[in-house]
Every structure is written in C-alpha cells, then in structure tokens.
Amino acid sequence: MHAAWIGTGANLDRVSTTTNTSTAAPSEPETPPTAADYLVDERGCWIWQRAVNGTGYAEERGGPDRGRSAARVYFERKHGPLPSEVLLDHCAHSRLCVNPDCQTPFPQSELRRRNAARWLDVDIVGEIRRRHAEGAIPARLAADLGLNYSTTRDALAGRTWGDHLG
Fold it and tell me: Alpha carbon of 70 to those of 12, 120, 121, 132: distances in Å?
C-alpha cells in the first residue's frame, strides 16, 4: 500500500493510493537512524546531534538525503512522502527535534499563518507598521524586534494580521 497526503488548510489526511500485492517486507531506509544521530530529551523529542543548517534546523549532510531537513527525512521514513508544498510543524517548536511523532504536516500557507500568530500580537504589528511608516526598513525592524525577516514583511504586506490595524 502506498500512502499520499491530501487536503487543504489544516485538513491533511493520509490516504491509500495503490495496493501493493507484493509479500516482500518494506525496504529499510538507506541510512537508518543510530543512537549517535539524536538524544531523547524529557519531552520525548529526538534532539539531532549532527549537522545544523544556517537557520538552526537539523539537516542531513550525507548519503541520498544530503541537504534535506532531518525531521522531514525521519517523518517520511515513518509516514511516507510529503508533497513539496507541505511543511512540518513541531509540537514543542524545537528546530532540532527529528521525532516523527512530534511533527504535524501543514500546507506552507497554513504554517505561515500559524507561525505569525505564534510570534506576533496586535502591539508588535502596530510597532512594525508605525516604524516602517517613519522610514525603518524591514530588515532593521526584524533585527530590532527579534523577528524573522519574512514575518516582518508579511505583517507589512497584510498577509498576516491584514484585518488588524487598518
């Protein structure tokens, strides 16, 4: 049986798309996890002990998965492939956790909305827009407020919090 992810928004479902009549066991991943790959913390997170990318996320650096998100690799090994437009959200917001049971798949647009709501509030959005109107550039605003550049740009463009503050 082959699994695929379908749906929109937060309504993603895994469905069977084909039936495999083979009696052979599923193939093992080419690079199975080892105890040296991660440590389990008190929350049950598998904290990655290997390479980290420039934004602080666990990253595969060898073999066929080189350059891919380690969390996505582990998730797909357990649950099957995800479409490229689907991203994973971690329940404890840990960039180093690769436990597939801690990850929830969301379309990129939904994850962007959820993340903006997590980090922004009406006062911060008001501050971003006020300072931008006074001439501050988005990169400086992001740095000053401890936000991601794209979060700041989305707030300015009305892609997040568009219905707030005019």
Answer: 21, 27, 31, 37
